[in-house]
Specification:
Largest sheet of chain B: none
Number of helices of chain A: 10
Low-confidence stretches of chain B: none
Distance between the termini of chain A: 12 Å
Radius of gyration of chain B: 24 Å
CATH topology of one domain in chain B: MetI-like fold
CATH superfamily of one domain in chain B: MetI-like
Radius of gyration of chain A: 23 Å
Structural class of chain A: mainly alpha
Order of helices and strands of chain A: HHHHHHHHHH
Largest sheet of chain A: none
Distance between the termini of chain B: 7 Å
Helix content of chain B: over 70%
Shape of chain B: flat
Largest interface: A-B, 43 and 45 residues
Mean pLDDT of chain A: 84
Strand content of chain A: under 5%
Number of strands of chain B: 0
CATH class of one domain in chain B: Mainly Alpha
Oligomer: heterodimer
Helix content of chain A: over 70%
Low-confidence stretches of chain A: 6-10
Shape of chain A: elongated
Number of helices of chain B: 15
Structural class of chain B: mainly alpha
Chain lengths: 311, 311
């Protein structure tokens, strides 16, 4: 994003990566925002309930429907008002952000494990392993955008709900979204591994008799770790939007659980009278998406050895 | 040239195989006996056998796939589950022109907005104008459509309340009903195209032949028009495929929120009715749209760029 000026006297390795990262104000601020969002998603619901009297605590759990207080504006009792069923909007927002980040976390775990792992194997071993993995990734790439995730969650949605309820739906959303994510990760890691495996330090280690496992884990993995981190962070932004899209289409998270897409969809019909109910989740998702994008860009600029050399 | 075309043909066949095969397998894995569900309470063995044969479920699955493929090549998409013996094509035929019109207009608008935005930003590189344009384009690119839609709705409502001319917020059929959905659908692509155009312009401006053109005393305006722009426009062709992919996912959200009876809307309806043959058919159709756009790019590129022809 921003140009990094390196004074002549400082060598490449003399400064740790985070000094580059912190110079990028947008990225640093986004990093703080993401940490705060994760913190709020974890303790927000509890804290919000603790801040009121025990009798009113239930009104802030995000599930309890208070029919005496439907579509209320912000008040001391409900900081961001209530929705069309009289549920506390802030509590539901916390739940939705928690779901968003949880889905993103599961998808990225699968993405790093599957995409990163298969990319390493394909790049390192080449041959039929590469052939198999690359063709599999190409098959998944053949589907534009969310189409495959829509198909998979549509077909297995009812079963997931019957078998495991809300958790089943969440896991289904995460696994169908990881089908969209991992091929790109595998492709990136594969090409990086391919160029690393013929570098001198790897050849030297191989010449000394290092095993495949040692070469991959000790020499190649540390050198692709930055790429995996950056790609996963940037992917979080699209996963958050994709999860909201699936939930909005009725294919993802379902009531009584909360999702940013679901909140927007439910409130969209009431937008004439209660625009705030749409704008709160809309603002939340926009800021989360922008924060993860800036964070990813900042990490890339700070971690990519090539971008540092170039400056 | 011949080699490029044969290579592309192999890729094309692979992509078509991947999309049809994976779509078929995923839909096939849907739990439950569709024929039994279709027949409901009346279980008549003869009719059961007849329907099973009609839908091809009496054959092994790979045989079913080959039959499906053979039918597909003839333009036969099979029969609906929800409306027994009704061809899938009948159900989605009305949606295809609707989605094509919406997508075509959105693609045109995104080029009309994105192209000049990117060109102007590159000419004003690193000034506040550049920052403003690219900031706006980044926002268009990264803010999800379901966030832009409510904002437009509220703005439209304000116009209506002020007694000013306003636009219909839903429906299909009248020209003015097109405006809002096309705007939303074009937003992400406009941002994408602007960024690509800016990079492409800057890339060409660095080339030697541009310096030569300047050195021979050609006025700046002519350098830009005759040399930079003409070369910078080439990569725009490659946008066709990815832009269509964006439109496919976008169409699901936009058609559903604006109640437009296109392919995306019909797909989501069929998901609710567990009508898997329809979901299967629309998935393949939408993926095919992207394949065709990529094919057009591949075929047209050598015609406009002699360098690709020479390879």
């Amino acid at each position: 994003m921003t140009e990094i000026a390196t004074p002549a006297e400082t060598s490449l390795t003399s400064r740790p990566w985070w000094t580059y990262f912190l110079r990028n104000r947008a990225a640093a601020a986004s990093g703080v925002f993401v940490v705060v969002a994760i913190f709020l998603a974890l303790v927000g619901p509890w804290l919000y309930q603790e801040l009121t009297s025990p009798e009113q605590r239930q009104g802030r759990d995000g599930i309890y429907q208070d029919y005496q207080a439907i579509n209320m504006g912000p008040s001391a009792e409900h900081w961001l008002g209530t929705d069309y069923l009289g549920r506390d909007t802030l509590a539901r927002l916390f739940m939705a952000v928690r779901i968003s980040l949880l889905v993103a976390f599961v998808v990225e775990a699968l993405n790093v494990g599957l995409g990163g792992g298969l990319g390493l194997l394909a790049g390192y071993f080449g041959g039929w392993a590469d052939m198999l993995i690359s063709r599999l990734a190409d098959m998944l790439f053949a589907f534009p955008g969310l189409l495959l995730a829509i198909l998979v969650s549509a077909v297995f949605g009812p079963t997931a709900r019957e078998l495991y309820g809300g958790t089943g739906r969440l896991l289904l959303v995460a696994s169908s979204l990881s089908l969209v994510s991992w091929p790109l990760m595998a492709r990136l890691v594969r090409s990086e591994t391919l160029s690393l495996k013929s570098r001198e330090f790897v050849l030297a280690s191989r010449g000394l008799g290092a095993s495949h496992a040692r070469l991959i884990l000790q020499h190649i993995l540390p050198n692709v770790a930055w790429l995996i981190t950056v790609a996963a962070t940037l992917d979080v932004a699209s996963v958050i939007v994709n999860e909201a899209t699936l939930s909005l289409l009725g294919l993802g998270i379902e009531e009584p659980a909360s999702s940013l897409g679901l909140m927007i969809f439910r409130a969209a019909g009431l937008i004439e009278r209660y625009p705030l109910q749409v704008f709160i989740p809309a603002a939340a998702i926009t800021s989360l998406v922008l924060a993860f994008s800036f964070l990813g860009d900042g990490l890339r600029d700070a971690l990519d050895p090539r971008s540092r050399q170039a400056s | 040239m011949g080699r490029i075309i044969s290579k592309r043909a192999v890729t094309l066949v692979f992509v078509l195989f991947s999309v049809t095969f994976l779509t078929f397998v995923v839909s096939h894995l849907a739990p439950g006996d569709p024929i039994r569900n279709m027949m409901g309470g009346r279980q008549d063995p003869a009719r059961y056998a007849f329907l099973r044969h009609l839908y091809g479920f009496d054959q092994p699955w790979f045989q079913q796939y080959l039959t499906y493929l053979a039918h597909l090549l003839r333009g036969d998409l099979g029969y609906s589950f929800k409306y027994p013996q009704r061809p899938v094509w009948d159900l989605i035929a009305t949606g295809v022109p609707v989605s094509s019109e919406l997508g075509g207009l959105a693609l045109t608008l995104s080029v009309v907005v994105g192209l000049p935005a990117g060109v102007l930003a590159s000419l004003w590189q690193n000034t506040w104008r550049d920052t403003a344009i690219m900031g706006l384009m980044l926002a268009l690119y990264s803010i999800p459509s379901f966030v832009i839609i409510p904002v437009l709705w509220v703005a439209d409502l304000a116009l209506y309340k002020a007694g000013l001319p306003s636009l219909p917020v839903a429906g299909w059929g009248r020209p003015e009903q097109l405006i809002l959905p096309v705007l939303v659908l074009a937003a992400a692509n406009a941002g994408f195209i602007a960024r690509l155009m800016r990079n492409s312009m800057l890339e060409v401006m660095r080339q030697d032949f541009i310096r030569t053109a300047r050195a021979k005393g050609l006025p700046q305006r002519l350098v830009i028009l005759r040399h930079v722009l003409r070369n910078a426009l080439l990569p725009l062709l490659t946008v066709l495929g990815p832009a269509t992919a964006f439109l496919v996912t976008g169409a699901f959200v936009v058609e559903n929120l604006f109640a437009i009876p296109g392919v995306g809307y019909l797909t989501v309806q069929s998901i609710g009715q567990r009508d898997y043959p329809v979901i299967q058919a629309t998935t393949i159709l939408l993926a095919l749209a992207v394949v065709i756009m990529n094919l057009i790019t591949d075929l047209v590129y050598p015609l406009v760029d002699p360098r690709v022809r020479a390879e």
